[in-house]
Design brief:
This protein is an alpha/beta fold and about 650 residues long. Strands 7-6-8-9-11-10-15 form a seven-stranded mixed beta sheet, sandwiched between helices. Helix 3 crosses helix 12, helix 14 packs parallel to helix 15 and helix 16 packs parallel to helix 18.
Length: about 650
């Protein structure tokens, strides 16, 4: 039981608590978050760092009349608990449960949906402008992590907000980390501020001194900005935020609720844009997370008492790990290979590369656009950069892929991790659009491995291509195939026929090759033989094979873990249309909607991408009902609903 938390049924209840009660409530909320994430997985360390901040926000402001916009969203669990979702918090990240990020369709308190970084200030400024146009007076608050300040969009928004001068409160949650340790000049700048608190004291003391001068103090204070700038430049070089037009307050202790309430109340009554710089501890209140915040940023199930992950049965290495090792091996042979990531050295597997080749590894922060053009510049100078991003985040660099990489036909290898349905993180993180947008780009090669061994060879193939190439592969463990020590380059645009004979041809890419093989086995049990093809290349397409099958087979079936709109199946239809080939085509993929959260297997079933559903749909397309299956005792087995 949670003595205080059980009494918080609506946000207004927080306002009735004193500081001591709020501190007790913070401890109870931490316990609830730890226990829930231990069972469900989720983002632990960042949420533990914002408990006091969230309580102070709800103590001072009146949401949802006031608007609260979170950056990335993995800081918002306390916000969800306080806004009527405590009873459903046990369903966090489960199918049909509450999401792990703010979601406008879930609660009126979620002012803006978010899953990517660096968006909060832009969205909050848009709300502030809408408020002003309508003549309203509510507050708008953006909470942004310091890691998100490595993203260019946040600076574009700061620049615009400072220029407009409209009322906006930006809270910079500085915990010195995004997922891994922060990189770049902004991180160093914030470090200097944290060790120079005398700046704020000096500024305040100077203001008080000037204002105390009889008769002329106010006028002198207003005209002394150059003197304040002099103090600022000595004590805190740059003072960037004030120079951008913000009133700067901080740094302050982000775990001191009383101080936070005082500062937030002061900011609420100020005019113009305000930036409050708070310093928090990622993983606060849970020792394992405090000691290893990068490991507890996003976690699977773990033992809440020890912090140790729940042991899983021995399984194959992940695609990420196989990519990481393969790139290190290839870089040993080729000194022109460089590696780039955007604040994801651990998640993309490039942390090991950075240790092996520190002078050839570059983490640019949360700046995918810059990463892509940086790679283009490296390629233009004769190197071969390999840039590793999560598929969903690579969407941010779409323009740079076209204009800076493909237009100049530069040898950049783009490795898209977490492609396809990623599971419990939900629609903001599913990587289901990359095949659709990549195949639009002239000069781009698009490769999709069927297993972890093929990923090794595809990486070697992509690096050997004198032009842009992208490889997409899923989250999690591989299929457990044997990994060889060698590398071989694959013939460009040529598919691999796994089984030739049959009246149906299953043309599959990536994870769907395994589903196609199983579906073919199920069809065989029903008296239908099916050819199975690992297409390997979505671009260039093996058109010769497709056209041959169009002439020989009764039905072509395309399978992909990507949006059907514009994806691999669409490319097959285009090929048939362009050559006047007439054959029925059945496509399997992600439907034209955003797919909810859930386990990967639940989501594959939801999208009809399990072998049983695939085989049943093929039988219906052929006009044949599946024969009843026999159980071990010879009785009929109930058929699954379709």
């Amino acid at each position: 039981m949670h003595a205080l938390l059980d009494r918080i049924n609506k946000p207004e209840d927080v306002k009735r608590l004193n500081v001591q009660e709020l501190d007790r409530l913070a401890a109870e909320i931490r316990r609830l978050i730890i226990d829930t994430v231990a069972r469900n997985g989720g983002h632990l360390a960042p949420n533990l760092g914002t408990v006091e901040l969230t309580l102070a926000l709800y103590s001072v402001f009146s949401f949802p009349q006031d608007k609260l916009v979170w950056d990335v969203g993995h800081q918002s669990y306390t916000h969800k608990i306080l806004t009527g979702r405590r009873e459903r918090f046990a369903t966090l990240r489960r199918q049909g449960g509450i999401t792990g990020f703010p979601n406008r369709f879930e609660s009126p308190y979620d002012a803006f949906g978010v899953g990517h970084a660096s968006t909060s200030i832009s969205a909050a400024l848009g709300m502030a402008i809408a408020r002003d146009v309508r003549g309203l007076h509510n507050q708008v608050i953006a909470v942004i992590g310091d890691g998100a300040l490595t993203g260019g969009e946040s600076f574009e928004a700061l620049n615009h907000a400072g220029d407009l001068g409209t009322k906006l409160i930006v809270i910079l949650n500085d915990n010195e980390m995004s997922i891994d340790a922060n990189v770049g000049a902004m991180s160093e700048y914030l470090s200097r501020i944290r060790i120079a608190p005398q700046y704020n004291r000096a500024k305040r003391d100077m203001g008080n001194l000037l204002m105390s001068i009889p008769h002329i103090g106010g006028k002198v204070y207003k005209t002394a900005s150059h003197l304040k700038d002099g103090v600022r430049s000595v004590l805190v070089p740059g003072s960037l935020f004030e120079e951008m037009g913000f009133h700067y307050i901080g740094p302050i202790d982000g775990h001191n609720i009383g101080l936070l309430e005082e500062v937030l109340s002061r900011a609420r009554d100020m005019t113009g844009p305000v930036l409050i710089h708070i310093h928090t501890v990622k993983g606060k209140g849970y020792l394992p997370a405090e000691q290893a915040p990068e490991k507890f940023h996003g976690v699977g199930c773990f033992d809440a008492q020890t912090g140790k992950p729940v042991k899983k049965a021995a399984c194959a290495p992940s695609y990420t790990a196989v990519f990481s090792q393969a790139l290190i091996e290839l870089a040993k042979k080729d000194p022109d290979i460089l590696a780039i990531t955007a604040a994801m050295p651990s998640g993309t597997g490039l942390k090991a590369f950075g240790k092996a080749y520190p002078n050839r590894f570059f983490d640019v922060g949360i700046a995918e656009e810059h990463a892509m053009t940086l790679a283009a510049g490296m390629a233009a100078a004769g190197m071969h950069p390999v840039i590793a991003l999560y598929s969903t985040f690579a969407q941010r660099a779409y323009d740079q892929m076209i204009h800076d990489v493909c237009l100049q036909n530069l040898p950049v290898t783009i490795c898209l991790d977490r492609a396809g349905l990623v599971g419990e993180d939900g629609p903001t993180h599913h990587g289901v659009f990359d095949l659709s947008y990549l195949r639009q780009m002239p000069n781009m090669h698009v490769l999709v491995p069927k297993d972890e061994e093929e990923l090794r060879h595809m990486l070697a193939t992509a690096i050997a291509i004198d032009g842009p190439a992208a490889i997409r592969y899923p989250r999690g463990a591989g299929r457990g195939v044997t990994l060889t020590d060698d590398f071989r380059t694959l013939p460009i645009g040529k598919a691999e026929v796994l089984h030739e004979e049959g009246e149906v041809a299953l043309l599959a890419v990536g994870t769907m090759v395994e589903k196609a093989e199983k579906a073919a086995e199920l069809l065989h049990e029903q008296g239908i033989e099916a050819a199975v093809v690992n297409m390997r290349f979505v671009k260039p397409l093996d058109e010769a094979l497709i056209l041959r099958y169009a002439a020989e087979k009764k039905l072509l079936v395309t399978l992909e873990e990507n949006a059907l709109a514009g994806g691999f199946g669409a490319s097959v239809l285009e090929c048939l249309a362009d050559h006047g080939a007439a054959v029925p085509v059945l496509r399997f993929g992600i439907p034209d909607r955003f797919v909810e959260q859930g386990t990967r297997q639940e989501l594959l079933s939801l999208c009809g991408l399990q072998a049983e559903a695939i085989a049943a749909a093929i039988l219906r397309k052929l006009g044949r009902e599946p024969a009843p299956q026999q159980d071990a005792a010879g009785g009929q087995m109930e058929q699954p609903e379709q």
